[in-house]
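WARN no homologs supplied; continuing
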Amino acid sequence: MGRTLILETTFLIDLEREHNRARPGAAVAFLEANGDARLYLPFIVAGELAAGASLADRARWEAFLGPFYVLASNADVCWKYGRAYRYLQEQGRLIGGNDLWIAATGLAYDMPVVTRNAAHYRRVPGLDVEEY
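OK structure emitted
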């Protein structure tokens, strides 16, 4: 097994679009370059996907999530969320609540977050961010 990586929502949206168009792009290329990686989703990403129209059917949602490991929230995730929130608020650089939960999950589980919105996530101190 290779590295462990957290995929955030924009990555999965891009992956789904590339699949639906039958035209590989940056998300597929990233997965091919990291074929031995174990891929994780924060609980909040699984929820965001369930809220989307393209995965509104539970069976389809579960099939989409099948290759990934879903990370639960826990006390450490909550603590990391609170610390990052306070820091970003003091700096006047808050990011969206769901994105902050994704970042907190990366911090708590000590895994990089894979995103195309790297500048956004790099506001969070100590978070390892990988851009695709």
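The beta strands are 4-7, 38-42, 69-71, 113-115, 129-131.
OK
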